[in-house]
# Entry
Amino acid sequence: MRLSMLALAGLLCGPAWADDDAAALQLADQASLPAEKPRDLKLLLEAAAIASPGAQGGQRLSVDLRWDGRLGPQWRAVFADRLDQDFADSPQRGHGVNTLKEAYLSHEFDAATLLDFGRINTRYGVGVGYNPTDFLGVGTVRSVVSADQASLRENRLGNAMLRWQRLWDNASLTAIWSPKLADGPSGHGMSLDFGASNPRERALLAYSYRFSEALNPQWLLLQEQGRSPQLGFNLSRVLGDATVAYVEWAGGRQAPDWPRWLGEVDDSWNNRLASGLTWTGSNKLSLTLEGEYDGGAPGLDDWRRLARSPFYRLYRMQMATGGVLPARRAALARASWQDALLDNLDLTAMRAASLDDHSGMNWAEARYHLGPVDLALQWQRFDGGALSQYGAGLAKPSWQLVFDYFH
# Structure
């Protein structure tokens, strides 16, 4: 798997958006809202050029296809796939990575009960930069094309699973069984890579209950083959007219690899947390501040020991597949402004920082929408010591020019 250095920071943090299929079982007041009928076929063609002073440039061509259609009154099929073809200054040095995001069938027993089977991309969590309850998404990123968190959650492998969903007036329940299909990730670009998406047998329960219009928490329980159960909790709450507060927590006994590499044995209870505030103004400007914590990740002293060990490179490679915090404490600041300065121009900027070694990543994007075409210019820069969390990235700024065509 080839991961662009330009998007390295995207590997260190992930976004938080609602699960597409869970939206099919929203509570009654939400389901009754009128919605435009979705198109069966959506196609994205993308071309990008990457440049950084003093470093080798590159180009990328991507094709992203999604088909979501009805096969009958009670049957629905979904297929989503993405191919990224990278070129290191010449077509002869190209390398392609295919990501089968989703391929599944869905059966509706009635208006409140669904059964899905196939490869499905679940997206749990209310956090913006880190999602500790996104249990099944860990390790499923094959190709990173942007540091934007939404891109990481969208452009990753789904898990092969059987999923049952049930809706009541004020509650919903999801049960998932995901079998083991392979032992480990594949390095072949065209692989289905079930070793990354289904490395062990797993079962997941997710339950939501609406206590009121403004209070709808979610509880999760994960059981993995050979591992201790993990608990999860999600809650967001509107504060006033413009601010949303959110908290996402997961906890359980864990035995990460890095303590064993350092000659220690650690299978203690670890808490993982993402909590923050998002403010949205009347001018479509949104500001987010988020704190992040993983009790099972190395703190500053352990990170320094790990950086001096022969396992440091292996640890960073493990972290490069997304979904976890490389170090114990982190923070995210993000600003997005729709129709900024002029119509159809969106501006986004963010900084992800380690609170342990104070290294960080800065990323910004200007995106202009022109009918079916988007033009985007992205900038990225890392700062920190050579062995810090973000200091391994490019110290000089890098640029990416992106052309998107939607059909």
